[in-house]
Amino acid sequence: MSSIIILGGSAGEHIAIELAKLLNVELGSLEIRKFPDNETYIRILSDVSGKKVIYVNSLQRKPNELIIETLYTLDTIRDLGAEEVHAVIPYMAYARQDERFNPGEAISILSLAKLFKALDIDGIYTVDMHLHRITDPTKIFGAKFYNLTGVRELAKYIKRYHSIENTVVIGPDEEAEQWAKIMAEELGDLEFSILEKRRLSAEEVVIEARDVEVRGKNVVIVDDIISTGGTIVEAVKALRNLGAKDIIVTTVHPILVKGALPRLLRLCLKDLVGTNTVLSPISKVSIAPAIAPRLKEQLNL
Ligand code: R5P
């Protein structure tokens, strides 16, 4: 059997280290720096020839830079004679730009998918990719695309650190029903519901809570992404107006832009927790255990 090596890009090393431990495979090294003119310099320091290579990079915080780094690195791994190339992209950037909302706009996720597809790699593994209008990502990325979930890891954290008595799970909008369902199941078949959200702009939303019974109950909110925090702020207000008690907010991808964290801290939540697909002060849960089993299966480990 050919040997396996795992490499972490500049926004994926923290996850690559954990995956190497969980899969018991060699952790290789890369050199990433800038040329004086700001172009990206990439050098793969480990020998990847004839090996199965797992490359990890999360397209978080500086997505444009990281996309270039990721595509160039994957192409180089193949070019250096790797037997198989597997890309772990815990946070897939541009997934929310999945439609031409205004004439002439780029459907960025389609363009990004075409670039990945052109590399013809052996597997792409991502986590809770925002699938709204594109429901089957294999149609754009190709068949070897796996969309995993980090919600079970968030549920393990809740079970470990909090009591779940008298608790309901809430998704702040229709799309979040899939995550609310998983969270509710993992917490022991709790009840779950969703709120109704209308987006006014990239930063403003209106949330209504109809047919949601939370009076006197504790709530666990789960969403895929917290970006500006607008969705969560409005969801928490709506739930408190309905008489909810303690509220814990969980998210897979804590992007937390534009002062989102102070806005969320002012809500005095019982807990606020995300995974480390995006590094932030609330990234208390490791995503590696959500990814490792699929890699084991695909690489026959
Ligand atoms: C959108 O539908 C997503 O599931 C999230 O609810 C959204 O991206 C959160 O964004 P923000 O924190 O800016 O409201």
Q: How are the secondary structure elements laid out?
A:
Blueprint lengths: L3 E5 L4 H11 L2 E2 L2 E5 L5 E5 L7 E5 L6 H17 L4 E6 L18 H12 L3 E5 L10 H4 L3 E4 L2 H11 L5 E5 L5 H10 L4 E4 L1 E4 L5 E4 L9 E9 L3 H12 L5 E8 L5 H6 L5 E5 L7 E3 L2 H11 L3
Parallel strand pairs: 1-2, 1-5, 5-6, 6-7, 7-8, 9-10, 9-13, 13-14, 14-15, 15-16
Antiparallel strand pairs: 3-4, 11-12
Offer a quick outline of the entry.
The protein is of the alpha/beta class. The protein contains nine helices and 16 strands.
Features of the shown structure:
26% strand; alpha/beta; 16 strands; six-stranded parallel β-sheet; binds ribose-5-phosphate; Rossmann fold; 31% helix; 301 residues
Describe the 3D structure.
With 301 residues, this protein is an alpha/beta fold. The chain folds into two domains: 4-149 and 286-299, Rossmann fold (3-Layer(aba) Sandwich), CATH 3.40.50.2020; 151-276, Rossmann fold (3-Layer(aba) Sandwich), CATH 3.40.50. It has helices at 13-23, 63-79, 108-119, 138-141, 151-161, 177-186, 230-241, 260-265, 288-298, and strands at 4-8, 26-27, 30-34, 40-44, 52-56, 84-89, 123-127, 145-148, 167-171, 191-194, 196-199, 205-208, 218-226, 247-254, 271-275, 283-285. The protein has a six-stranded parallel beta sheet, sandwiched between helices. A six-stranded parallel beta sheet has the order 10-9-13-14-15-16, sandwiched between helices.
